[in-house]
Rho-GAP domain-containing protein
Amino acid sequence: MPEPPPSPGPDPHRVDLPAFEPKQDPLGVTLIGDLAQGDMGRIRALAHIELTALFDAYSIVYSRPKRRKKVKENGIFGVPLETLVDQDQKRSPSNCKVPIVFQAMITFLEKEGLSAEGILRVSGADSRAKQLRHDLEEKFYQGLFSWGDCSPHDVATVMKQFLRELTVPLLSYEYLDAFPQISSIPKTLEQLKALNLLILLLPEENRETLKVLLRFLRAIISRSNQNKMGLNNVAMIMAPNLFMGPAPSPGHRHDRQVLDLEAELKKAAGTSAIVKMLVHYQDVLWTVPSAFVAQLRHQYTTEAQRRSKEKLLSRLPWKKEKDRSEIYKKPLPSPDQPEPQDGVIRVQAPHLTKSSALVQLDQFTTAADVVAKFKYDENEAADSQGHEKENRPGEVFTNDSIVHKEETNGHAVRNPKKAHYAGDTDHLFEVGGNIAERCLDPRTKMLDLYHVNPLAEWVIRTRPGR
């Protein structure tokens, strides 16, 4: 009688984490990159208060390692992220907060390494990795470096060295020890909340570089059937590169060494669990809590009311018998800020042919619906072929999506080939009122948001990668 086939072992690629999605909000989910830099400064202050309260509730205490007094200011390896980004921007001004060399390594690995068996786990040859480091240092910023003959395993080895040797850790000096402590929180939702707060608190360069890394790690896991690298493997291998601790000093007694080993094993398990969560829940973690956005709006409203009262106070004669109650009455709208027509917004699109339009909102109108009014309409274009519309010199038909302004004997010629329409990277922005600036989630219910911020301006802008 033939022996039964052996029972399969545990699936190494199985994800043993519950699924969570960002809670849908009628005002739209706010991603970290959606807010203006000034607003993010206020959000960080709120996140610090919230994290302190959360850690106090679970009696979590984390240390803050001392910063190195001297750091390298030149080169690639062992240089702070902030320094690398500053140098990149001096060479080629841009808004990118990820070092170009790190992005180049990730881009190469995404093209050549996702299907390589054991990527990240199998180390490259020491001699080749050493030569690759040398070539990057000497040739990359000279424009002389080529990835042509590089092995994915060698590049992955050097990429991990880059992360380990950062003089300011990727997870920052301030919070490097806070991340592993999250493992002691018993509830997964509370763990996610703490991780979300820590990511909000990271310096921008660290947060954006971490985001690029985590997207790459998720891409590796998506090819786990080819590269044999599931979430557990990836987390276990990458954790030491993000949570490197000081090397143990010699001369410890045996019992102390055992205790240190137990502590290190416990820490390794905790850091691996955190990396798993960072990779698996990255879409949830890179959001701004809706409660924080509401507090942000309240701050702006309170500050505007205070300025209005102070302005009114400065204009009043200072008399003891004066009834000061008038100072605290809500000021009437000024002539330059009239009450907007209920349910109608004017949308600006400075970079498009259709530069503005009035949009009537209803309970179903979303931000995506508003942007769609500025996209190419084949039916409208077909109906308009071969027609001309008389126009006074200098007039622009802002309510016609296919008109391109050309001076031809006082006419504006309809020419869809020259027109500029909204594309997939164009989004609606909420500007002013009770917020500085916010790129809107396409699912945002516009009538709800209009009632929350009736004095906002609405502008279509390009924002790649939302």
